[in-house]
Amino acid sequence: MTTSERREPSTVAGEREMLDGWLEYHRDTLAWKCAGLDDKQLRQAAAVPSGLTLLGLVRHMAEVERSWFRRVLADEDAGPIYYSDADEDGDFHVGDGDTWTDAYAVWQAEIARARELAAARSLDDLSAGPRRDSSTGERFSLRWIYTHMIEEYARHNGHADLIREAIDGVTGD
Fold first, then answer.
1. What CATH number is associated with residue 133?
2. How far is 85 from 143, CA to CA, in rounded Å?
3. 165, containing H or E segment
4. Domain count, the chain
5. For residue 1, is it within any domain?
6. Cβ atoms within 10 Å of 116's Cβ, excluding its own
7. Residue 3 domain flag
């Protein structure tokens, strides 16, 4: 793995550029952690009893991008990609037929839509919709969504570090 594909966030940028930079950095980090592995390796869990895989993390982050930017920020009627009422963790449950090519394409499409929706708004703009499990109708600023997304990626990139190391011994920041 090389770090040349990741763009280091600016250390002196304004708030919007800083948030964009860190979110892109973490998106790139997850892709970097998956680089060079085949589908079988990407479906490999790191440690029993966990079934967490790199492919599952990518699918999960596609759902997270979709949820926060499309459903919450823009109040789009964007149904689930991988999960269902019968399997609420379906994004993490990968099968033999699930591929990097498919998951990566879906994830990148969700990222592209998220960028588009965020670009049209101020950090102070409130979401058009509530979170799907919210009974209060609570709204979120775009600033909060960015911060949450950075936290979500950072947490899962930590998982990705451990999974990648278990697969082939590769480590990195």
1. 1.20.120.450
2. 30
3. helix 142-168
4. 1
5. no
6. 12
7. no
Would you state the structure tokens that stand for residue 106, as one six-digit string? 């879906």
SS3 126: strand
* Position 2 in a domain: no
Of 113, 111, 146, give the one whose Cα is nearest residue 31.
111
Residues with Cβ within 8 Å of residue 94, at least 6 apart in sequence = 43, 53, 55, 56, 59
Which of 122, 146, 161 has its CA nearest to residue 65? 146
Q: Return the residue matching tokens 């950075």.
A: 150
Amino acid, res. 71: R
pTM given for the model? 0.93
Domain that holds residue 30: 15-168
pLDDT, one tens digit per residue, over 123-165 is 999 999 877 666 677 899 999 999 999 999 999 999 999 999 9
End-to-end CA distance of the chain: 11
